[in-house]
Every structure is written in structure tokens, then in C-alpha cells.
Amino acid sequence: MIRFIGHITIILVAATPAEARQRLHFLARHLNDTCPDIEFADHNGDVDDYGAAEAECKASLDDAVAGVARFDNYEITPCRRFEEPDQPGQHYFECCEPEDADTWSLYGHIPGQGVECIADFQTREHAEEVYARITGTPYNTQAQGARP
Hints:
The protein is of the alpha+beta class.
């Protein structure tokens, strides 16, 4: 079984700290009741040894993907669709200028192996949204080295 530790920040708008705590406790109870796979723990004593629990979660992730290289970078590229001339209904994609794009492809870079297309999207914005969901950060063309 894979265990993963994630950190979530919840910002509640409330009139008083007591109201915010009450709403946060309600939310935690709701998640606990409806999502049996979630375990709540914090650094303030809910777990006997939080560092050990975190290490166990990280180790279970490493064990679960043994032999599979993680993407170390991503890029979003405009692509144009072409039909195979000898095979009706078959097509392929080539990188192109943004104004000529039929699709926007999100690629993941595999260390020492090149890139792999993760998915194609109708708009650059949708590709960037999925990138942000995967990485937890907004897409930055300069940092990623992708085409604008």
C-alpha cells in the first residue's frame, strides 16, 4: 500500500478565531467520515513520531515506483496535426508556431531518455492548468525552456 504525506493549507474566512476553528473541525470531521483513506496528523503531537511517519510515507512512494524514472522537467508545445498520406484516418503531430497550432502538447522530460507526451489539449491554458495540477506550481515558459 502506498502512503503519501501531503500538506494542505486551508484559509477560512470567519469573524472570530473560535468560528474559524469550529469550521475547520467540521471540515476535518467531514473529510474523516467521507474519505476513509485520509489520516489526519500534525507536527503538534497527533502522531508519536511525525518524522518517522513522514519517512515511511516517502519510502512507500519510492518503493512503489522502483525502476520508473520521474519526470524532471516539463514543456508545453504547440503542435499541428497532419494526415498520413498513404493511410486515411491516420495522423501524426509536429511542433509548430503557436498561431498554426491544432493542439497544445504537455511533455514530461525523462532523465537520460528524452520526452514523453503526457496529453494533448485544445488550448495552451488547459495544458498549463493540467501542468499546475501535476506539479503544484504555475507553468513558467522561461523556467521550462518551452516555446511561448
